[in-house]
Design a protein that fits this description.
This is TMOD4 protein. With 214 residues, this protein is an alpha/beta fold. It has helices spanning 12-21, 52-60, 79-90, 107-119, 135-145, 165-177, 191-209; strands spanning 68-70, 97-99, 125-127, 153-155, 183-185. The longest helix has 19 residues, at 191-209.
């Protein structure tokens, strides 16, 4: 088809549209030029409207109405403010979810998150994806997960640097040792830790569905 120039008759979209509708999409002949398909532009996501200062105040006041803290894509939050948020969540009894996706969080924030996990007893979901946490900071977070028995979901994928083989092994070990973790977001590069993590998550979910099997 490429040698004969058949690809100039119609695009793949026109071909599949013709199959679905039963109508001929290109009636201009063999010498016609395939026109590019027009797609509707997808608008950018609106900026995160969360007021960081107000959120920090409510966390420090242990506001029972504040259960989900979403700071995603707010890139200008100073590191001391992120550390203060983690410090406030240490003793907060109402927050269930903390999401710090694409907040430029680094190892200093990771250390604050680890200290938070060691004391908090209400957090269920933690998302640290798309940040600048290195292997050292990630190991610190993984070591603290077992100290937070309420945490069921952890997402740490897409860090700026590759975390390395030792971190992936630590992730698999953490999932094996923490039956409370039911969902884990990370793209493994090694087959061994990937298989161990999948088996551990399957076991954890089965134990949650059947507590008497534990």
């Amino acid at each position: 088809a490429a040698i004969l120039g058949m690809y100039t008759l119609m695009s793949n979209k026109q071909y599949y549209d013709a199959i679905c509708s039963g109508n001929i999409c290109n009636t201009e002949g063999i010498n016609s030029v395939v026109q590019p398909d027009r797609y509707r532009p997808v608008p950018d996501e609106p900026p995160n409207p969360t007021d960081v200062a107000e959120t920090l105040r409510r966390l420090q006041d242990n506001d029972p109405a504040l259960q989900d803290v979403n700071l995603n894509n707010i890139k200008d939050i100073p590191v001391p403010t992120l550390e203060a948020i983690c410090e406030a969540i240490k003793t907060n009894t109402h927050v269930r979810s903390l999401s710090l996706v694409a907040t430029r969080s680094n190892d200093l924030v990771a250390n604050a998150v680890a200290a938070m996990l060691e004391q908090n007893r209400s957090l269920q979901s933690l998302n640290l994806e798309s940040n600048f946490i290195t292997s050292a900071g990630m190991l610190r977070v993984l070591a603290a997960v077992g100290r937070c028995p309420t945490l069921t979901e952890l997402r740490v994928d897409n860090q700026c640097q590759r975390l390395g083989d030792s971190v992936e092994m630590a992730m698999a070990a953490m999932l094996e040792q923490c039956p409370a973790v039911l969902r884990f977001g990370y793209t493994f590069t090694l087959q061994g830790p990937r298989a161990r993590a999948a088996a551990a998550l399957t076991r954890n979910n089965e134990l949650r569905e059947c507590p008497r099997c534990h």
